[in-house]
Structures are given as structure tokens and as C-alpha cells.
Amino acid sequence: MYRIGLGYDIHKLTEGRDLIIGGVKITHEKGLLGHSDADVLIHAIIDAMLGALCLSDIGTLFPDNDDLYKDADSTVLLKKVYEMVKEKGWKISNLDSNIIAQRPKMMPYIPKMKEVLSKILETEEISIKAKTNEKMDAVGNELAIEAHAAVLLNLA
Question: What percent of the chain has pLDDT over 90?
């Protein structure tokens, strides 16, 4: 038996914040604005896992009006959600994802992102692809970064 989930997230780029994507600090003059560390990739993965289990979404589970999650490390949130997945008797079969950013280039950071995520999610079956929006819309105009994730769960 399998379950599939789809996740999406977008955050505005702003000065004075670190840029953290996939649990990796990326060299850039701007970071993502959010209540937590605003890691768009991990947030999309969390929503994909929650969706596969027909549970709530990241905003319901970790609300942005709760000081407990102010500047939270998204890898910690991901660990909590993956524990929920395992407690319900599931494991990740594979993860497919896209990071959409005009700048900075993500490719140099993807191997480290995969390393971070594979330790948390207990699988090597992780795909992370980097895309641009060809200078169109908020992402293409370097105002935001977004991510999409699809996760396939199977019974443990």
C-alpha cells in the first residue's frame, strides 16, 4: 500500500536574514522572510508528508503566531513530522522536489541538502532539482523563492 503527498511553499526574499534551504546555509545577500527559518524546501516536504497521511498542514501544526516556532530550525520540524509518519506505520519510498530560484544558483548546494535530508528521512531516494522562472514573476524577479515536493510513502 502506498500514499502520495504534494507540498508547496514560497517565501519572500529580504535583507538581514540567512538563506537556509534544505537545511543548508546558502551564501547570498538576502534570506527568506518567515516566522521560522523559512526553509521553503523543508516546508514543502513537510506539507507533502502531512498530505500523504491526510493530516493538517505545516501552518496548522506549527502556527506562525506561536512563539515556540519563532526562528525555528526547520530540520527540527521535519524530524517531528517524520516521527509522526513512522508512528503511523509508514516510511518514505522516495521524495522528488524542485527549488525555484532565479538567484543564487542551487546546484552547488544540492549534494549537502541531500545529505541533510537523507539522515532525517532515513532514505537515499531523494531528488532535488533546481529551476529558475526565466526572470518572470516574483521568483524570476528575485523577490521570492519557492519549492515543490512530492513524497511517496509505503508501509514500513
Answer: 94
2-28 exposure pattern, b = at least 16 Cβ within 10 A, e = fewer: ebebebebbbebeeebebbbbbbebeb
Q: d(Cα 135, Cα 133) in Å, to the nearest integer?
A: 5
**Residue 42: CB partners within 8 Å, gap ≥ 6?**
22, 23, 74, 75, 77, 78, 117
CA separation for the pair 144, 31 (Å, rounded): 9
Which tens digits make up the pLDDT trace of 29-83?
A: 999 999 999 999 999 999 999 999 999 899 999 998 989 889 899 999 999 999 9
d(CA 20, CA 32): 8
